[in-house]
Design brief:
The protein is of the alpha/beta class. Helix content is 42%, strand content 21%. It has 20 helices and 20 strands. A six-stranded mixed beta sheet has the order 5-6-7-3-8-9, sandwiched between helices. Helix 3 packs across helix 4, helix 7 crosses helix 9 and helix 9 crosses helix 15. The chain is globular.
Protein backbone atom coordinates (compact mmCIF):
# COMPACT_ATOMS: atom_id res chain seq x y z
CA UNK A 1 0.00 0.00 0.00
CA UNK A 2 1.25 3.48 -0.84
CA UNK A 3 2.42 5.61 2.07
CA UNK A 4 0.07 8.31 3.32
CA UNK A 5 1.04 11.87 2.36
CA UNK A 6 3.23 13.76 4.81
CA UNK A 7 1.72 17.02 3.53
CA UNK A 8 -1.35 17.82 1.47
CA UNK A 9 -3.47 20.72 0.26
CA UNK A 10 -7.12 20.10 -0.63
CA UNK A 11 -8.99 22.62 -2.78
CA UNK A 12 -6.18 25.20 -2.62
CA UNK A 13 -7.02 28.62 -3.95
CA UNK A 14 -5.23 31.98 -3.88
CA UNK A 15 -6.43 35.44 -4.89
CA UNK A 16 -3.92 37.75 -6.54
CA UNK A 17 -4.95 41.26 -7.47
CA UNK A 18 -8.57 41.30 -8.55
CA UNK A 19 -8.93 37.60 -9.35
CA UNK A 20 -7.88 34.04 -8.59
CA UNK A 21 -4.28 33.10 -9.39
CA UNK A 22 -5.43 29.49 -9.07
CA UNK A 23 -8.35 27.69 -7.46
CA UNK A 24 -9.30 24.15 -6.47
CA UNK A 25 -5.79 22.66 -6.54
CA UNK A 26 -5.04 19.34 -4.79
CA UNK A 27 -1.45 18.56 -3.75
CA UNK A 28 -0.30 15.35 -2.05
CA UNK A 29 3.35 14.78 -1.14
CA UNK A 30 4.46 11.30 -0.05
CA UNK A 31 7.53 10.60 2.16
CA UNK A 32 9.90 9.76 -0.72
CA UNK A 33 8.48 11.93 -3.50
CA UNK A 34 10.94 13.55 -5.92
CA UNK A 35 8.77 16.18 -7.59
CA UNK A 36 9.58 18.65 -10.36
CA UNK A 37 7.32 21.74 -10.22
CA UNK A 38 7.04 23.08 -13.77
CA UNK A 39 5.31 26.19 -15.09
CA UNK A 40 5.82 29.46 -16.93
CA UNK A 41 7.32 32.46 -15.14
CA UNK A 42 4.54 34.27 -13.29
CA UNK A 43 2.30 31.18 -13.10
CA UNK A 44 2.82 30.99 -9.33
CA UNK A 45 5.44 28.25 -8.83
CA UNK A 46 7.32 30.03 -6.04
CA UNK A 47 3.98 30.92 -4.45
CA UNK A 48 3.01 27.23 -4.49
CA UNK A 49 6.23 26.43 -2.59
CA UNK A 50 5.39 29.10 0.01
CA UNK A 51 1.89 27.68 0.39
CA UNK A 52 3.31 24.19 0.86
CA UNK A 53 5.79 25.56 3.42
CA UNK A 54 3.02 27.42 5.25
CA UNK A 55 4.69 30.83 4.99
CA UNK A 56 1.78 32.07 2.85
CA UNK A 57 -1.86 31.37 3.68
CA UNK A 58 -4.29 30.27 0.99
CA UNK A 59 -7.62 32.01 0.45
CA UNK A 60 -9.30 28.66 -0.01
CA UNK A 61 -8.62 25.03 0.92
CA UNK A 62 -7.14 23.01 3.76
CA UNK A 63 -3.46 22.30 4.48
CA UNK A 64 -2.63 19.10 6.39
CA UNK A 65 0.80 18.08 7.69
CA UNK A 66 1.76 14.85 9.46
CA UNK A 67 2.83 15.66 13.04
CA UNK A 68 6.58 16.02 13.39
CA UNK A 69 7.19 16.69 9.69
CA UNK A 70 10.02 19.18 9.23
CA UNK A 71 9.53 21.35 6.12
CA UNK A 72 12.54 23.43 5.01
CA UNK A 73 12.75 25.85 2.07
CA UNK A 74 15.84 26.75 0.04
CA UNK A 75 14.67 30.15 -1.22
CA UNK A 76 15.53 31.58 -4.62
CA UNK A 77 16.60 34.90 -3.03
CA UNK A 78 17.52 34.33 0.65
CA UNK A 79 17.34 37.37 2.94
CA UNK A 80 20.69 38.11 4.62
CA UNK A 81 19.46 41.33 6.27
CA UNK A 82 20.81 41.68 9.81
CA UNK A 83 23.41 38.92 9.38
CA UNK A 84 27.02 39.97 9.79
CA UNK A 85 28.48 36.69 8.51
CA UNK A 86 27.23 33.80 6.43
CA UNK A 87 27.34 31.62 9.56
CA UNK A 88 25.01 34.10 11.30
CA UNK A 89 22.52 33.51 8.51
CA UNK A 90 22.81 29.71 8.86
CA UNK A 91 22.21 29.80 12.62
CA UNK A 92 19.45 32.42 12.58
CA UNK A 93 15.84 31.55 13.54
CA UNK A 94 14.45 29.50 16.44
CA UNK A 95 14.66 26.18 14.52
CA UNK A 96 18.24 26.76 13.32
CA UNK A 97 20.30 23.61 12.58
CA UNK A 98 23.18 22.50 14.85
CA UNK A 99 26.41 24.39 14.18
CA UNK A 100 28.45 21.21 13.68
CA UNK A 101 26.06 20.01 10.95
CA UNK A 102 26.33 23.37 9.17
CA UNK A 103 30.13 23.25 9.37
CA UNK A 104 30.19 19.68 8.02
CA UNK A 105 28.21 20.60 4.90
CA UNK A 106 30.18 23.84 4.48
CA UNK A 107 33.40 21.81 4.40
CA UNK A 108 32.01 19.56 1.67
CA UNK A 109 30.82 22.55 -0.37
CA UNK A 110 34.07 24.47 0.13
CA UNK A 111 32.52 27.61 1.59
CA UNK A 112 33.99 29.82 4.34
CA UNK A 113 31.00 30.82 6.47
CA UNK A 114 33.00 33.45 8.34
CA UNK A 115 32.76 35.65 5.23
CA UNK A 116 30.89 38.94 5.55
CA UNK A 117 27.34 38.29 4.35
CA UNK A 118 26.89 41.66 2.63
CA UNK A 119 30.07 41.40 0.53
CA UNK A 120 29.75 37.68 -0.28
CA UNK A 121 29.23 36.76 -3.94
CA UNK A 122 26.00 35.25 -5.24
CA UNK A 123 27.64 31.83 -5.33
CA UNK A 124 28.83 32.12 -1.70
CA UNK A 125 25.40 33.23 -0.52
CA UNK A 126 23.77 30.34 -2.39
CA UNK A 127 26.16 27.84 -0.77
CA UNK A 128 25.40 29.27 2.68
CA UNK A 129 21.68 28.90 2.04
CA UNK A 130 22.25 25.27 1.00
CA UNK A 131 24.24 24.63 4.22
CA UNK A 132 21.38 26.00 6.31
CA UNK A 133 18.69 24.03 4.48
CA UNK A 134 20.42 20.65 4.31
CA UNK A 135 21.82 20.78 7.86
CA UNK A 136 18.27 21.22 9.18
CA UNK A 137 17.55 17.52 8.42
CA UNK A 138 14.24 18.17 6.63
CA UNK A 139 11.56 15.57 5.97
CA UNK A 140 10.35 17.71 3.07
CA UNK A 141 12.78 19.97 1.21
CA UNK A 142 11.45 22.76 -1.03
CA UNK A 143 14.05 23.92 -3.57
CA UNK A 144 13.51 27.13 -5.54
CA UNK A 145 16.12 27.36 -8.34
CA UNK A 146 18.81 25.60 -6.26
CA UNK A 147 21.49 25.67 -8.99
CA UNK A 148 21.44 29.45 -9.51
CA UNK A 149 24.95 30.92 -8.97
CA UNK A 150 26.47 27.48 -8.34
CA UNK A 151 29.48 26.24 -10.29
CA UNK A 152 29.60 22.79 -11.86
CA UNK A 153 31.36 21.09 -8.93
CA UNK A 154 28.78 22.41 -6.45
CA UNK A 155 25.91 21.30 -8.71
CA UNK A 156 27.41 17.80 -8.93
CA UNK A 157 27.75 17.70 -5.13
CA UNK A 158 24.13 18.81 -4.61
CA UNK A 159 22.88 16.20 -7.08
CA UNK A 160 24.79 13.46 -5.22
CA UNK A 161 23.40 14.63 -1.86
CA UNK A 162 19.81 14.64 -3.12
CA UNK A 163 20.21 11.19 -4.67
CA UNK A 164 21.14 9.84 -1.20
CA UNK A 165 18.51 11.92 0.63
CA UNK A 166 15.81 9.86 2.38
CA UNK A 167 13.14 12.55 2.54
CA UNK A 168 10.86 14.12 -0.07
CA UNK A 169 11.60 17.20 -2.16
CA UNK A 170 9.83 19.54 -4.55
CA UNK A 171 12.13 21.44 -6.92
CA UNK A 172 11.70 24.41 -9.25
CA UNK A 173 14.61 24.65 -11.68
CA UNK A 174 15.50 25.71 -15.21
CA UNK A 175 18.36 23.17 -15.23
CA UNK A 176 17.09 20.34 -17.42
CA UNK A 177 20.02 18.06 -16.57
CA UNK A 178 19.44 18.55 -12.83
CA UNK A 179 15.70 17.81 -13.14
CA UNK A 180 16.16 14.79 -15.41
CA UNK A 181 18.68 13.15 -13.10
CA UNK A 182 16.73 13.63 -9.86
CA UNK A 183 12.95 13.76 -10.31
CA UNK A 184 10.48 10.86 -10.44
CA UNK A 185 7.17 12.73 -10.78
CA UNK A 186 6.04 16.09 -12.20
CA UNK A 187 3.63 18.79 -11.01
CA UNK A 188 2.69 21.02 -13.94
CA UNK A 189 1.18 24.42 -13.06
CA UNK A 190 -0.54 25.64 -16.22
CA UNK A 191 -3.15 28.39 -16.62
CA UNK A 192 -4.40 28.12 -13.08
CA UNK A 193 -4.63 24.31 -12.92
CA UNK A 194 -2.17 21.78 -11.47
CA UNK A 195 -1.60 18.44 -13.15
CA UNK A 196 0.44 15.59 -11.68
CA UNK A 197 1.97 12.66 -13.49
CA UNK A 198 4.21 9.90 -12.15
CA UNK A 199 7.00 10.59 -14.61
CA UNK A 200 10.23 12.48 -14.01
CA UNK A 201 11.18 15.56 -15.97
CA UNK A 202 12.67 13.36 -18.69
CA UNK A 203 9.12 12.55 -19.84
CA UNK A 204 7.62 15.99 -19.24
CA UNK A 205 8.03 17.51 -22.70
CA UNK A 206 6.31 14.57 -24.41
CA UNK A 207 3.46 14.82 -21.89
CA UNK A 208 3.19 18.58 -22.46
CA UNK A 209 3.01 18.11 -26.24
CA UNK A 210 0.33 15.44 -25.78
CA UNK A 211 -1.84 17.72 -23.59
CA UNK A 212 -1.57 20.68 -25.99
CA UNK A 213 -2.31 18.47 -28.99
CA UNK A 214 -5.46 17.16 -27.30
CA UNK A 215 -6.52 20.73 -26.45
CA UNK A 216 -5.95 21.84 -30.03
CA UNK A 217 -8.10 18.98 -31.37
CA UNK A 218 -10.84 19.82 -28.88
CA UNK A 219 -10.68 23.50 -29.82
CA UNK A 220 -10.98 22.66 -33.52
CA UNK A 221 -14.03 20.48 -32.88
CA UNK A 222 -15.64 23.30 -30.92
CA UNK A 223 -14.52 25.91 -33.46
CA UNK A 224 -13.28 27.92 -30.48
CA UNK A 225 -11.25 30.52 -32.36
CA UNK A 226 -11.12 32.78 -29.33
CA UNK A 227 -9.61 30.00 -27.21
CA UNK A 228 -7.04 29.21 -29.89
CA UNK A 229 -5.97 32.85 -30.01
CA UNK A 230 -5.86 33.03 -26.21
CA UNK A 231 -3.43 30.11 -26.04
CA UNK A 232 -1.04 31.22 -28.77
CA UNK A 233 1.87 30.81 -26.35
CA UNK A 234 1.01 27.22 -25.49
CA UNK A 235 0.53 26.23 -29.13
CA UNK A 236 3.89 27.83 -29.93
CA UNK A 237 5.73 25.55 -27.54
CA UNK A 238 5.48 22.43 -29.68
CA UNK A 239 6.22 24.31 -32.90
CA UNK A 240 9.25 25.96 -31.31
CA UNK A 241 10.52 22.59 -30.09
CA UNK A 242 10.23 21.14 -33.60
CA UNK A 243 12.10 24.11 -35.07
CA UNK A 244 14.80 23.72 -32.46
CA UNK A 245 15.36 20.10 -33.53
CA UNK A 246 16.31 21.43 -36.96
CA UNK A 247 18.55 24.02 -35.35
CA UNK A 248 20.27 21.30 -33.34
CA UNK A 249 21.10 19.47 -36.55
CA UNK A 250 22.62 22.69 -37.90
CA UNK A 251 24.55 23.13 -34.62
CA UNK A 252 26.07 19.66 -34.93
CA UNK A 253 27.19 20.47 -38.48
CA UNK A 254 28.82 23.69 -37.23
CA UNK A 255 30.65 21.74 -34.52
CA UNK A 256 32.00 19.28 -37.08
CA UNK A 257 33.24 22.14 -39.24
CA UNK A 258 34.85 23.82 -36.23
CA UNK A 259 36.54 20.57 -35.18
CA UNK A 260 38.14 20.34 -38.61
CA UNK A 261 39.81 23.72 -38.00
CA UNK A 262 41.43 22.60 -34.74
CA UNK A 263 44.59 20.63 -34.04
CA UNK A 264 44.38 17.26 -32.24
CA UNK A 265 45.57 18.99 -29.06
CA UNK A 266 42.48 21.21 -29.11
CA UNK A 267 44.19 24.54 -29.90
CA UNK A 268 42.67 26.49 -32.74
CA UNK A 269 44.96 26.97 -35.75
CA UNK A 270 46.38 30.48 -35.84
CA UNK A 271 47.65 30.73 -39.37
CA UNK A 272 45.85 33.08 -41.74
CA UNK A 273 44.92 31.44 -45.02
CA UNK A 274 43.89 34.52 -46.96
CA UNK A 275 41.80 37.65 -46.95
CA UNK A 276 38.57 35.68 -46.53
CA UNK A 277 39.84 34.25 -43.26
CA UNK A 278 40.84 37.70 -42.06
CA UNK A 279 37.39 39.13 -42.60
CA UNK A 280 35.77 36.18 -40.82
CA UNK A 281 37.93 36.51 -37.72
CA UNK A 282 36.40 38.79 -35.10
CA UNK A 283 38.65 38.05 -32.08
CA UNK A 284 42.19 36.66 -32.23
CA UNK A 285 43.96 35.75 -28.98
CA UNK A 286 47.65 34.90 -29.42
CA UNK A 287 49.52 33.27 -26.49
CA UNK A 288 47.86 35.44 -23.85
CA UNK A 289 48.78 35.18 -20.16
CA UNK A 290 47.14 36.76 -17.11
CA UNK A 291 48.48 36.72 -13.57
CA UNK A 292 47.14 37.99 -10.25
CA UNK A 293 50.03 38.12 -7.82
CA UNK A 294 51.80 34.75 -7.82
CA UNK A 295 48.88 32.97 -9.44
CA UNK A 296 48.67 32.48 -13.21
CA UNK A 297 44.96 32.49 -14.08
CA UNK A 298 45.31 32.15 -17.88
CA UNK A 299 48.43 30.57 -19.36
CA UNK A 300 49.59 30.61 -23.01
CA UNK A 301 46.08 30.68 -24.51
CA UNK A 302 45.51 31.08 -28.25
CA UNK A 303 42.24 31.07 -30.18
CA UNK A 304 40.84 32.53 -33.37
CA UNK A 305 37.12 33.26 -32.99
CA UNK A 306 35.27 33.37 -36.30
CA UNK A 307 32.15 35.29 -37.18
CA UNK A 308 29.16 33.13 -36.22
CA UNK A 309 30.99 31.10 -33.54
CA UNK A 310 29.09 30.29 -30.35
CA UNK A 311 31.70 30.04 -27.57
CA UNK A 312 30.85 28.62 -24.13
CA UNK A 313 33.06 29.23 -21.07
CA UNK A 314 32.77 26.71 -18.23
CA UNK A 315 34.63 26.00 -15.01
CA UNK A 316 34.42 26.38 -11.26
CA UNK A 317 33.98 29.69 -9.46
CA UNK A 318 37.37 31.43 -9.41
CA UNK A 319 38.74 29.35 -12.30
CA UNK A 320 39.18 32.47 -14.47
CA UNK A 321 36.09 32.49 -16.71
CA UNK A 322 35.32 36.18 -16.17
CA UNK A 323 39.00 37.11 -16.57
CA UNK A 324 39.24 35.28 -19.90
CA UNK A 325 35.94 36.75 -21.08
CA UNK A 326 37.05 40.30 -20.28
CA UNK A 327 40.32 39.82 -22.16
CA UNK A 328 38.49 38.42 -25.20
CA UNK A 329 36.16 41.43 -25.44
CA UNK A 330 38.90 43.98 -24.72
CA UNK A 331 37.91 45.03 -21.20
CA UNK A 332 41.10 43.64 -19.66
CA UNK A 333 44.67 43.69 -21.03
CA UNK A 334 46.69 40.44 -20.91
CA UNK A 335 50.09 40.47 -19.16
CA UNK A 336 51.63 38.70 -22.15
CA UNK A 337 50.45 38.03 -25.69
CA UNK A 338 47.90 39.96 -27.71
CA UNK A 339 44.15 40.11 -28.30
CA UNK A 340 43.06 41.63 -31.62
CA UNK A 341 39.43 42.67 -32.12
CA UNK A 342 37.79 43.37 -35.48
CA UNK A 343 37.28 47.12 -35.98
CA UNK A 344 33.61 46.63 -36.84
CA UNK A 345 32.85 44.75 -33.61
CA UNK A 346 29.77 46.06 -31.79
CA UNK A 347 28.98 44.21 -28.56
CA UNK A 348 25.91 43.83 -26.36
CA UNK A 349 26.68 42.51 -22.87
CA UNK A 350 23.88 40.96 -20.80
CA UNK A 351 25.18 40.38 -17.27
CA UNK A 352 23.78 38.87 -14.09
CA UNK A 353 23.10 42.15 -12.32
CA UNK A 354 19.97 43.25 -14.25
CA UNK A 355 20.99 46.78 -13.25
CA UNK A 356 18.97 48.46 -16.02
CA UNK A 357 15.62 47.35 -14.60
CA UNK A 358 14.47 50.12 -12.26
CA UNK A 359 11.38 48.87 -10.33
CA UNK A 360 9.33 52.03 -10.94
CA UNK A 361 9.72 51.95 -14.73
CA UNK A 362 7.07 50.51 -17.03
CA UNK A 363 7.65 47.63 -19.42
CA UNK A 364 7.09 50.15 -22.24
CA UNK A 365 9.89 52.36 -20.87
CA UNK A 366 12.39 49.49 -20.77
CA UNK A 367 11.68 48.03 -24.21
CA UNK A 368 10.61 51.05 -26.29
CA UNK A 369 11.68 54.12 -24.26
CA UNK A 370 8.01 54.95 -23.66
CA UNK A 371 6.95 54.57 -27.31
CA UNK A 372 4.52 52.19 -29.04
CA UNK A 373 7.26 51.13 -31.45
CA UNK A 374 10.48 49.19 -30.92
CA UNK A 375 13.48 49.65 -33.20
CA UNK A 376 14.57 46.01 -33.62
CA UNK A 377 18.02 46.16 -35.24
CA UNK A 378 16.89 48.75 -37.76
CA UNK A 379 13.30 47.50 -38.24
CA UNK A 380 10.29 49.14 -36.56
CA UNK A 381 7.99 46.72 -34.77
CA UNK A 382 4.92 47.41 -32.62
CA UNK A 383 5.60 46.83 -28.94
CA UNK A 384 2.66 44.42 -28.54
CA UNK A 385 3.95 42.11 -31.26
CA UNK A 386 7.51 42.33 -29.99
CA UNK A 387 6.46 41.44 -26.44
CA UNK A 388 4.62 38.40 -27.81
CA UNK A 389 7.88 37.23 -29.37
CA UNK A 390 9.30 37.06 -25.84
CA UNK A 391 6.24 35.25 -24.41
CA UNK A 392 4.74 38.31 -22.71
CA UNK A 393 1.03 39.05 -22.54
CA UNK A 394 0.78 42.36 -24.47
CA UNK A 395 -1.42 43.64 -21.64
CA UNK A 396 1.69 43.93 -19.50
CA UNK A 397 2.99 46.87 -21.53
CA UNK A 398 1.97 49.34 -18.79
CA UNK A 399 3.04 47.12 -15.86
CA UNK A 400 5.76 48.35 -13.50
CA UNK A 401 8.98 46.34 -13.46
CA UNK A 402 8.68 45.95 -9.68
CA UNK A 403 5.49 43.88 -10.12
CA UNK A 404 7.14 41.32 -12.42
CA UNK A 405 8.54 38.00 -11.26
CA UNK A 406 12.31 37.41 -11.34
CA UNK A 407 11.98 35.34 -14.51
CA UNK A 408 9.83 37.97 -16.22
CA UNK A 409 12.43 40.63 -15.45
CA UNK A 410 15.16 38.50 -16.98
CA UNK A 411 13.00 37.98 -20.06
CA UNK A 412 12.34 41.73 -20.26
CA UNK A 413 16.07 42.44 -20.23
CA UNK A 414 16.59 39.93 -23.05
CA UNK A 415 13.83 41.64 -25.07
CA UNK A 416 15.50 45.03 -24.61
CA UNK A 417 19.03 43.91 -25.44
CA UNK A 418 18.15 41.72 -28.43
CA UNK A 419 16.47 44.72 -30.08
CA UNK A 420 19.79 46.61 -30.22
CA UNK A 421 22.11 46.31 -33.19
CA UNK A 422 25.18 44.21 -32.47
CA UNK A 423 27.44 41.57 -34.01
CA UNK A 424 28.86 40.27 -30.70
CA UNK A 425 26.57 39.03 -27.96
CA UNK A 426 28.03 38.38 -24.48
CA UNK A 427 25.80 36.45 -22.06
CA UNK A 428 26.87 36.06 -18.42
CA UNK A 429 24.75 33.36 -16.74
CA UNK A 430 21.75 34.11 -19.00
CA UNK A 431 19.65 31.16 -17.78
CA UNK A 432 19.25 32.34 -14.16
CA UNK A 433 15.56 32.90 -13.29
CA UNK A 434 14.29 31.83 -16.72
CA UNK A 435 11.57 29.20 -17.13
CA UNK A 436 12.00 26.28 -19.52
CA UNK A 437 9.94 27.78 -22.33
CA UNK A 438 11.93 31.01 -22.19
CA UNK A 439 15.11 28.92 -22.39
CA UNK A 440 13.74 27.34 -25.57
CA UNK A 441 13.12 30.85 -26.90
CA UNK A 442 16.62 32.00 -25.93
CA UNK A 443 18.17 29.00 -27.70
CA UNK A 444 16.15 29.89 -30.79
CA UNK A 445 17.25 33.53 -30.72
CA UNK A 446 20.91 32.56 -30.28
CA UNK A 447 20.68 30.07 -33.15
CA UNK A 448 19.23 32.76 -35.46
CA UNK A 449 21.66 35.49 -34.34
CA UNK A 450 23.88 36.66 -37.21
CA UNK A 451 26.90 37.53 -35.11
CA UNK A 452 29.22 35.84 -32.63
CA UNK A 453 28.12 34.72 -29.15
CA UNK A 454 30.17 34.32 -25.96
CA UNK A 455 28.34 32.51 -23.12
CA UNK A 456 29.41 32.00 -19.52
CA UNK A 457 27.09 29.43 -17.97
CA UNK A 458 26.84 26.52 -15.55
CA UNK A 459 23.71 25.19 -17.29
CA UNK A 460 24.98 21.99 -18.92
CA UNK A 461 21.95 21.29 -21.11
CA UNK A 462 21.82 24.90 -22.33
CA UNK A 463 25.47 24.78 -23.42
CA UNK A 464 24.95 21.44 -25.17
CA UNK A 465 22.10 23.01 -27.18
CA UNK A 466 23.78 26.30 -28.13
CA UNK A 467 27.58 26.40 -28.38
CA UNK A 468 29.96 25.24 -31.11
CA UNK A 469 33.16 25.52 -29.03
CA UNK A 470 33.63 25.06 -25.28
CA UNK A 471 36.47 26.67 -23.33
CA UNK A 472 36.96 24.64 -20.15
CA UNK A 473 38.95 26.16 -17.27
CA UNK A 474 40.18 24.10 -14.31
CA UNK A 475 41.85 26.90 -12.32
CA UNK A 476 45.42 25.87 -13.20
CA UNK A 477 45.74 28.41 -16.01
CA UNK A 478 45.25 25.85 -18.76
CA UNK A 479 42.21 26.21 -20.99
CA UNK A 480 40.77 23.21 -22.85
CA UNK A 481 39.38 24.10 -26.29
CA UNK A 482 36.80 21.55 -27.42
CA UNK A 483 34.59 21.55 -30.49
CA UNK A 484 31.14 20.90 -29.01
CA UNK A 485 29.26 21.54 -25.80
CA UNK A 486 29.59 20.73 -22.13
CA UNK A 487 29.14 16.98 -22.66
CA UNK A 488 31.99 16.96 -25.20
CA UNK A 489 34.28 18.76 -22.73
CA UNK A 490 33.36 16.33 -19.96
CA UNK A 491 34.05 13.38 -22.26
CA UNK A 492 37.51 14.74 -23.08
CA UNK A 493 38.30 15.29 -19.39
CA UNK A 494 37.17 11.79 -18.49
CA UNK A 495 39.29 10.23 -21.22
CA UNK A 496 42.33 12.29 -20.21
CA UNK A 497 41.97 11.44 -16.52
CA UNK A 498 41.60 7.74 -17.34
CA UNK A 499 45.07 7.72 -18.95
CA UNK A 500 47.60 7.99 -16.12
CA UNK A 501 51.21 8.04 -17.38
CA UNK A 502 53.60 5.83 -15.43
CA UNK A 503 57.27 6.50 -14.70
CA UNK A 504 59.69 4.83 -17.12
CA UNK A 505 61.62 2.18 -15.10
CA UNK A 506 63.23 0.54 -18.14
CA UNK A 507 61.27 -2.65 -17.56
CA UNK A 508 58.74 -3.92 -20.03
CA UNK A 509 55.19 -3.96 -18.82
CA UNK A 510 53.71 -7.45 -18.38
CA UNK A 511 51.37 -8.55 -21.16
CA UNK A 512 47.67 -7.95 -20.48
CA UNK A 513 45.74 -10.96 -19.13
CA UNK A 514 43.83 -12.96 -21.72
CA UNK A 515 40.23 -11.97 -22.33
CA UNK A 516 37.77 -14.26 -20.55
CA UNK A 517 36.21 -16.82 -22.85
CA UNK A 518 32.49 -16.26 -23.17
CA UNK A 519 29.92 -18.92 -23.82
CA UNK A 520 29.61 -19.64 -27.48
CA UNK A 521 25.97 -20.66 -27.21
CA UNK A 522 23.07 -19.56 -25.02
CA UNK A 523 21.30 -22.10 -22.88
CA UNK A 524 17.67 -22.88 -23.64
CA UNK A 525 16.46 -20.58 -20.83
CA UNK A 526 18.82 -17.77 -21.86
CA UNK A 527 17.74 -18.00 -25.51
CA UNK A 528 14.08 -17.98 -24.51
CA UNK A 529 14.57 -14.87 -22.34
CA UNK A 530 16.55 -13.17 -25.12
CA UNK A 531 13.70 -13.79 -27.61
CA UNK A 532 10.74 -12.94 -25.36
CA UNK A 533 11.95 -10.09 -23.15
CA UNK A 534 11.66 -7.27 -25.77
CA UNK A 535 7.94 -7.97 -26.18
CA UNK A 536 7.50 -8.11 -22.39
CA UNK A 537 9.27 -4.75 -21.99
CA UNK A 538 6.91 -3.17 -24.56
CA UNK A 539 3.96 -4.70 -22.71
CA UNK A 540 5.17 -3.24 -19.41
CA UNK A 541 5.61 0.18 -21.04
CA UNK A 542 1.99 0.09 -22.21
CA UNK A 543 0.80 -0.94 -18.75
CA UNK A 544 2.76 1.89 -17.13
CA UNK A 545 1.24 4.46 -19.50
CA UNK A 546 -2.28 3.31 -18.51
CA UNK A 547 -1.44 3.36 -14.79
CA UNK A 548 0.14 6.83 -15.03
CA UNK A 549 -2.92 8.13 -16.88
CA UNK A 550 -5.21 6.84 -14.12
CA UNK A 551 -2.99 8.30 -11.37
CA UNK A 552 -2.90 11.68 -13.15
CA UNK A 553 -6.43 12.36 -11.82
CA UNK A 554 -5.76 14.77 -8.91
CA UNK A 555 -9.05 13.82 -7.21
CA UNK A 556 -8.33 10.10 -7.14
CA UNK A 557 -6.47 10.06 -3.82
CA UNK A 558 -9.29 11.73 -1.90
CA UNK A 559 -12.22 10.07 -3.74
CA UNK A 560 -10.89 6.49 -3.78
CA UNK A 561 -7.73 6.07 -1.65
CA UNK A 562 -7.90 2.26 -1.93
CA UNK A 563 -7.79 2.36 -5.73
CA UNK A 564 -5.02 5.01 -5.56
CA UNK A 565 -2.95 2.65 -3.41
CA UNK A 566 -3.59 -0.30 -5.74
CA UNK A 567 -2.61 1.66 -8.84
CA UNK A 568 0.53 3.05 -7.17
CA UNK A 569 1.61 -0.42 -6.05
CA UNK A 570 0.97 -1.78 -9.55
CA UNK A 571 3.00 1.03 -11.10
CA UNK A 572 5.93 0.39 -8.75
CA UNK A 573 5.78 -3.33 -9.52
CA UNK A 574 5.73 -2.69 -13.28
CA UNK A 575 8.71 -0.31 -13.02
CA UNK A 576 10.77 -2.83 -11.05
CA UNK A 577 9.89 -5.64 -13.44
CA UNK A 578 10.79 -3.48 -16.44
CA UNK A 579 14.15 -2.49 -14.90
CA UNK A 580 14.97 -6.14 -14.19
CA UNK A 581 13.88 -7.21 -17.68
CA UNK A 582 16.03 -4.55 -19.35
CA UNK A 583 19.09 -5.48 -17.27
CA UNK A 584 18.58 -9.18 -18.04
CA UNK A 585 18.19 -8.56 -21.79
CA UNK A 586 21.28 -6.32 -21.93
CA UNK A 587 23.27 -9.03 -20.15
CA UNK A 588 22.11 -11.60 -22.69
CA UNK A 589 22.79 -9.22 -25.59
CA UNK A 590 26.40 -8.86 -24.43
CA UNK A 591 26.71 -12.66 -24.34
CA UNK A 592 25.35 -12.91 -27.89
CA UNK A 593 27.78 -10.24 -29.14
CA UNK A 594 30.62 -12.05 -27.37
Amino acid sequence: MAAAPILSWEGLGLIQGSGWLFQGLDINIAPRDRLALIGRNGAGKSTILKLIAGTVEGDQGKRSVQPGTRVITLEQAPDFTGCETLMDYCLRAPDAPPRHEVESIAGQLGIDLSRNAASASGGEQRRAAICRALASEPDLLLLDEPTNHLDLDAIDWLESWLQRYNGAFVVISHDRTFLTRLTKATLWLDRGSLRRREIGFGGYEAWEDQVYAEEARAAERMDAKLKIEEHWKERGVTARRKRNMGRLEKLYEMREARAAMMTPQGVAKMQISGDGSKTKSVIVADKIVKRFGDRTVIKDFSLRIQRGDRIGLVGGNGAGKSTLLKMLIGELEPDEGTVTLAQSLSAVVIDQQRSLLAPDKRVRDIVAEGSDWVNVRGTRKHIHGYLKDFLFDPGLVEARVGTLSGGERSRLLLAREFARFSNLLVLDEPTNDLDLETLDLLQEVIADYDGTVLIVSHDRDFLDRTVTVTLGLDGSGKVDIVAGGYADWQKQRTQRNAVKPKADTGEKAPPPPPMPVKKGKLSYKDQRDYDLLPARIEQLDAEMVKLEAALADPALYTSDPKRFAQLTAALDKARHEKDSAEERWLELAEMVEG
